[in-house]
Design a protein that fits this description.
Layout lengths: L1 E4 L6 H11 L12 H27 L8 E7 L2 E10 L5 E9 L8 H15 L4 E7 L3 H9 L3 E11 L13 E5 L6 H10 L2 H6 L4 H4 L3 H14 L1 E10 L5 E10 L6 E7 L7 H15 L5 E6 L3 H9 L3 E12 L1
Parallel strand pairs: 4-5, 10-11
Antiparallel strand pairs: 1-2, 2-3, 3-4, 5-12, 6-11, 6-12, 7-8, 8-9, 9-10
Length: 329
């Protein structure tokens, strides 16, 4: 057995096999990867493998893009039995622990703890000062692992889903205007999040320009990643009439072809809950019109209660919640 760095793209196939087995929860099916999520993962990894020569060329010119995804694996008997994947958040010193996965047959042997420790050491060597992750609420073994490693809870993320068709969206309240948001235009998202994010959250997950502003290297990589994901993405903002203040941004992503699911992301100023029913309904309807007949998934932080309530009012159901945790390095 050995701990080693994940080698891209050679490890894409064993990584997919590991993740598909690790993220099944027979005792709680709502936590398990659904079929459309598995299809999306496999399609993305296959496409990334084909596009890897282009990605490698960008990494050669812009070394910082090598932190877009890194991994530490546990190998034994010639197979990958565990992995921790990490990624730097933009150009900041904040890193996300994106995946912690151990094959069910290899659990309760300290593999996850060893890999997580090695991954955090690697983050420190690369100048990281803080790491964050998400753990399913109720997954007590994983939560205890993170707590004993120094992680502390700071937020909740609620995941909702629906297979229903959207109702006709309500009209927007008077006093708000919608504008398209080019995907490269980072400033409206940054300005809104910087204004509305609770202090307890931003202490662990800082709102920094380096997380939002797209570097030259990312302007090259993002189109490649979208090709790999075969997705169509649209975004828009709402501003108040008169003072032109941004009060919401929304983004939806749908499969361009093949299998998969529709994905919504919405951030709304809690001072304007009256906008939530229209905002959620419109994003839901537009994504379904572009990609009908698919499951729609949406995540929202717990402190955006008006967004969660508006989603539930149009047919979304809570699938699971995550405890957001962070640690200083």
């Amino acid at each position: 057995m050995s701990i080693r760095s994940i080698r891209f793209p050679d490890d894409f196939s064993p990584l997919a096999t590991l993740v598909l087995s690790a993220f099944q929860y027979p005792e709680n099916e709502a936590w398990s990867m659904q079929t459309d999520e598995q299809e999306t993962l496999l399609r993305t990894l296959r496409s990334l493998r084909r596009l890897w020569p282009l990605i490698r060329a960008v990494q050669a010119v812009f070394p910082q893009t090598r932190d877009l995804i890194r991994g530490i694996g546990w190998e034994e008997g010639g197979r990958l039995a565990g992995v921790v994947l990490t990624q730097r958040r933009g150009t900041t010193s904040l890193w996300g622990v994106a995946t912690v996965a151990v094959d069910p047959a290899s659990r309760r042997r300290g593999i996850a703890r060893a890999l997580l420790s090695a991954a955090l050491d690697e983050i420190r060597r690369r100048g990281g000062q803080r790491a964050i992750l998400a753990v399913i609420k109720g997954n007590l073994p994983a939560q205890r692992l993170y707590e004993t490693t120094g992680f502390e809870a700071y937020d909740e993320l609620i995941e909702l889903q629906t297979t229903a068709a959207p109702p006709t969206p309500s009209d927007p309240p008077v006093g708000f205007v919608r504008q398209p948001l080019p995907l490269r235009d980072w400033r409206p998202r940054y300005e809104l999040d910087d204004r509305i994010t609770p202090e307890i959250v931003r202490r662990c997950d800082p709102i920094e320009i380096g997380r939002y502003r797209m570097t030259r290297s990312m302007r090259l990589l993002v189109p490649i990643i979208r090709i790999a994901q075969r997705s169509v993405e649209r975004a828009f903002v709402y501003r108040t009439v008169g003072d032109d203040r941004i009060v919401a941004w929304a983004r939806y992503s749908v499969p361009g072809r093949g299998d998969g699911y529709n994905d919504l992301r919405i951030h709304l100023d809690p001072a304007h809950p009256e906008l939530a029913p229209h905002l959620v309904g419109l994003a839901f309807a537009e994504s379904a019109a572009r990609s009908p007949g698919r499951r729609t998934e949406m995540k929202a932080p717990g402190w955006m209660s008006s967004v969660v309530a508006a989603a539930e009012a149009v047919g979304f159901e809570r699938r699971k919640s995550y405890r957001m945790m962070g640690v200083d390095l």
